Amino acid sequence: MHRNSSTIRYLCLHSSFFTESHFQFLGRRCKRYYPVEVLTSETRGKGSGFSSLMSSLSSFINTYLIPIGLGNLARKFYFVWLIWNAIYIGIVYFTFPETKGRTLEELKEVFNASNPVKRSIAKRTVYVPKGTT
Q1: pTM value surpassing 0.90
Q2: In whole angstroms, what is the distance from residue 123 CA to residue 19 CA?
Q3: Which is it for the CA torsion 88, 93, 98, 101, positive or negative?
Q4: What span is annotated as the signal peptide, if there is one (predicted)?
Q5: How confident is the prediction along the chain (133 residues), in pLDDT tens digits per residue?
């Protein structure tokens, strides 16, 4: 057994508590609602189903395949994981439209555009009538 096994146990307990109590509470809740909110009524069922499928696949990978990768590649697997996450961040950055600070009407315009990403980052002009500032 490792000399600092009590420290390792403490860190494992602390990280699992942090993950379960904070990330699960704050981060996971939005994952289910985002596809439902941004899709139209006609595509909401398919989008919600696809979102659930992707969530289940990622849970399967995290539960069953990562331990196999860690067992076979040991520390090298972290580099595989790092590269995968970098690719995923790039995909999200370049293909997901920005929705922050927009009304539902503006989001409808963004998602109905031929290139939603370009439309979401285009500069907007806001008309402010005289005497209202």
Answers
A1: no
A2: 38
A3: positive
A4: none
A5: 455 556 656 555 555 555 555 555 555 556 666 677 777 788 888 888 888 888 888 888 888 888 888 889 888 888 988 898 899 889 888 888 888 888 888 888 888 889 988 988 888 777 788 877 6
